Amino acid sequence: MSEQRTELDNLGEFGLIDHLTKKFESIQKTTEFAIGDDAAVLNINDKESQLISTDMLIEGVHFNLMYMPLKHLGYKAVAVNVSDICAMNGVAEQITVSIAVSNRFPVEALEELYDGIHTACRFYNVDLIGGDTSSSLSGLTISITAIGRAIKEDIAYRSGAQEHDLLVVTGDLGAAYVGLQVLEREKEVYNANPAIQPDLDGHDYIIERQLKPEARVDVIKFLKELDVKPTSMIDISDGLASEVLHICKSSKVGCHVYDEKLPIDTKTSMTAIEFNLDPHTCAMNGGEDYELLFTVSQKDYDKIKGNPHMTVIGHITDEKDGRYYIDKNGSAIELTAQGWTHFND
Amino acid sequence: MSEQRTELDNLGEFGLIDHLTKKFESIQKTTEFAIGDDAAVLNINDKESQLISTDMLIEGVHFNLMYMPLKHLGYKAVAVNVSDICAMNGVAEQITVSIAVSNRFPVEALEELYDGIHTACRFYNVDLIGGDTSSSLSGLTISITAIGRAIKEDIAYRSGAQEHDLLVVTGDLGAAYVGLQVLEREKEVYNANPAIQPDLDGHDYIIERQLKPEARVDVIKFLKELDVKPTSMIDISDGLASEVLHICKSSKVGCHVYDEKLPIDTKTSMTAIEFNLDPHTCAMNGGEDYELLFTVSQKDYDKIKGNPHMTVIGHITDEKDGRYYIDKNGSAIELTAQGWTHFND
Predict the structure, then answer these.
(1) Distance from C-alpha of B154 to C-alpha of B175, rounded to nearest angstrom
(2) Is there a contact between A139 and B137 if contact means CB atoms under 8 Å apart?
(3) Which of A8, A12, A70, A58 is nearest to B137 (CA)?
(4) Are residues A192 and A180 in the same domain?
(5) Boundary of a domain, candidates B154, B176, B192
(6) Residues A139-143: what's their mean pLDDT?
(7) CA–CA separation, A84 and A75 (whole Å)
(8) Strand, coil or helix: A167
(9) At what angle do helices A217-225 and A70-86 cross, to 10 degrees?
(10) Which residue of A has its CA nearest to B126?
(11) Cα–Cα distance for residue pair A84/A36, rounded to 1 Å
């Protein structure tokens, strides 16, 4: 090993992936698209392609078992992987699930986890086709690979957005992040005094958004029924700002996102304010909403107009016009993605 | 969670997987085979099926960075997954690699790891098509999914062995385990006195078998050239005894494995004896050889007879005749697989 030492934080997650994988080239003719989208794309027959996505969830980094019941964790682990397949405009069909656990966990705990995985498999019609179970020195690690399909011409990459396209999000934003704040607060209260019962009253919606997000398989169906093919698509795992920038970077375009257009549920706004947080900041940078962000050609506007699941939040501009967030006063602020979770000791 | 507490060790790895996945049923018509072989099998077109296998490697459980250079670890992680695709009589084409690392690792360490992954991808002609990079609270975890293909009628399952078939292994056995003993001994010596240089002289072969195993992609090619379709196949990751029992259980057959037929390299035998280990026990239970174990119909015997890569070590019997290891004196000893690594605290 060389004597130089570059800290992981210097590169950040996306910089690190780019750096480590830059010298890999695809040589198999079945590889249609490798690294850099929500899923890889493989050629499997003349009509369809296969979509493959993978995710690893680490205790203490991605989830906290103090407020995340194992059953919910199992469900969420499947849902977020199905969401990656949705983000390519495809349908998930199979998953593999590998887990590493310390013997702190009894068999009954893993039964809870697999109950959640089973419920999600039933709900999303995906088959559990394999995996690996091993011991870990500490904590729980879950690694999931989701496998899906799409008609070749339906696949939506991050790179297809074009000038004048409309930027659309599904559902509402920021709730998962604000829900996490409530759970974190109650954890602190509990740590200070275990006799005090958690006060989650009135926060059901935002807590459910954090603990039990759903992949928008319904939206993929609606889009097909409406005969709308998104020109680009991504799912919102790291926050809207980060995902908009991914689309802009991959598509080599600019954008305007309008503050006043962001779909934020009243319960999210009220609780955010309770925590002295700006609801729009939660929507832009909160993450974990697992909604879909996509672009459509203006000619498709009439097909999605007034659809209760979709909100137009801005439009695509030429790359040299920049990427901007337009606030309530009409001021244009350059879009930036918040930093990534730091690498832990 | 229920109040009952059943320890993970009560079930063991395979018992645990069976227990957790027993209520999962496949509903997708593209799922040809789900859990219970070296890889899952998916229908992708009229001629071919896809093979999907996944593995997780945990620092301190599956590898020790004190004697495993990161470059070798990267290479091995790919090789063992390619081996799973070989074990279905298929050809690996793509992999995904997810890693979780603590910030104990500098970027340069991960470059070493990915150098090894890259070298293996080149050697095995597999494309890196995706993955996930995240932080961990401690140590390094690697999760790999391998994707391969096979002509439908070529696929070899564990369940196809029939009475009178011959049991065949490739290469030689036990070397990886004995190599590990040498590395462990030198680690102890180093821990006791870091000034002493490791004494690995004359152990190159067995250490390479531990640190840089190869998937037998060459054997898959030979079998095709020889026009031999194994009736069943598995790769040797946990030790020959365990794998023979997997084939017998899946195929509902018995077997005789002959002690005197086991292919063991002289260097393996000599070093085993140095460690007061029985070389045949190392071959039967050592594991990590990543050779292939398969069965062929007797009519194919002439095609493999004298092949330097293949050794007939026994034959398949009727299930009610039992599963036996025949020692040098002709005594039949019931085959048992050694226990699995215990779940750690």
Answers:
(1) 30
(2) yes
(3) A58
(4) yes
(5) B154
(6) 94
(7) 15
(8) strand
(9) 30
(10) A28
(11) 12
Residues of chain A positioned with their CB less than 8 A from the CB of B51 = none
Which three-class secondary structure state does DSSP give residue A24?
coil
Which of B114, B131, B345 faces A102 most closely, judged by CB atoms?
B345
B27: chain A residues, CB-CB within 8 Å: 125, 127
- What is the domain extent for residue B60? 8-154
Nearest CA in chain B to A101: B343
Indicate if B180 and B304 belong to the same structural domain: yes
Q: Tell me the ipTM for this assembly.
A: 0.90
Share of chain B above pLDDT 70, in %: 96
Residues 57-116 of B with CB under 8 A from A: 58-62, 70, 93-94, 96, 98-112, 114
Within this chain, do residues B216 and B114 fall inside the same structural domain, yes or no? Answer: no
Per the CB < 8 Å rule, is A42 touching B108? Answer: no
- How far apart are alpha carbons B90 and B151 in whole angstroms? 8
Note whether residue B1 is domain-resident.
no
Q: Are residues A326 and A186 in the same domain?
A: yes
Residues B188 and B328 in one domain: yes
Does any CB of chain A come closer than 8 Å to the CB of residue B336? no
- Interchain proximity B56–A103, CB inside 8 Å: no
What angle separates helix B175-192 from helix B266-274, to the nearest 10 degrees?
Answer: 40
Report the side by side order of strands in the sheet with B91-101.
B31-33, B40-43, B48-58, B140-151, B91-101, B127-135
Q: How many CB atoms lie within 10 A of CB A10?
A: 10
**What is the rounded CA–CA span in Å between residue A259 and residue A229?**
26
Average pLDDT over residues B247-272: 95
Read off the CATH number of the domain in which A267 is found: 3.90.650.10
CA distance A49 to chain B (A): 9
Is the CB of A42 inside 8 Å of chain B's CB atoms? yes
Q: Are residues A28 and A74 in the same domain?
A: yes
A103·B9 Cβ contact <8 A: yes
C-beta separation of B29 from B54 below 8 A: no
Q: What is the pLDDT of residues B165-193, one digit of tens each?
A: 999 999 999 999 999 999 888 888 878 87
Encoding tokens for residue A218?
A: 């319904």
Number of independent structural domains in chain B: 2
- The residues near A329 (Cβ < 8 Å, ≥ 6 apart) are none
Examine residue B339 and state whether it is found in any structural domain, yes or no: no
pLDDT at A338: 67
- Structure-derived torsion over alpha carbons of residues A243, A71, A100, A41, reported in degrees to the nearest 10: -40
Of A110, A137, A154, the last residue of a domain is A154
Query: Are residues B84 and B184 both part of a single domain?
Result: no
| Residue B345 pLDDT greater than 80, yes or no | no
Distance from CA of B253 to the nearest CA of A (A): 24
8 Å CB contact of A62 and B28: no
Do residues B135 and B102 make contact, with C-beta atoms less than 8 angstroms apart? yes
Cross-chain residue pair A58–B137, CB shorter than 8 Å: yes
Say if residue A2's pLDDT is above 60: no
Is the CB of residue B338 less than 8 Å away from at least one CB of chain A? no
Which among A6, A34, A110 is the nearest to B106, CB-wise? A6
The answer on B285 and B191 residing in a single domain is yes
Residue A234, pLDDT score: 97
Q: What count of residues does chain B have?
A: 345
> What residue in A sits closest to B15 (Cα-Cα)?
A133
